[in-house]
Amino acid sequence: MEKSFTIQQVSMITGLSGHTLRYYEKIGLLKGVDRNEHGYRQYSETDISWIHFLIRLRITGMTVNDMKSFSDLRSQGESTITARRELLELHQRKVLDEMKALAENLEKIEEKIGHYKKLEGQN
């Protein structure tokens, strides 16, 4: 049997607050979270893996609406694999574009640091 985790444990494991976990459940990003006999949420290891993936999407700039679309497709099963892949590929392109822009900006910052180091060396 798969181990279950309380909302506090999942909060510690994922770094998300209990409020965020409840919000994700409310808007449908987390579906099918079990409850114990007292009505308390019981998260599975599968739930935690999914939460970690949602965190990765969020950190890389995916909107909550797009995360919701992905989650909805996921809950519809195997017939949505192509749509899920396409959504992730679109997000991947956005992330790669952002990484390219960051690298270009970092290069300019490094040039300016080099410029200031040269000026300091003249004194």
UniProtKB/TrEMBL annotation:
Coiled coil: 92-119
Protein name from the UniProt record: MerR family transcriptional regulator
Entry-linked CDD domains: HTH_YyaN (cd01109)
Keywords of this entry: Coiled coil, DNA-binding
PROSITE patterns named among the record's database cross-references: HTH_MERR_2
Any one GO MF annotation of this record: DNA-binding transcription factor activity
Domain HTH merR-type: 4-73
Any Pfam family matching the protein: MerR_1
Signal peptide start-end: none
Transferase among keywords: no
InterPro entries: DNA-bd_dom_put_sf, MerR-type_HTH_dom, MerR_fam
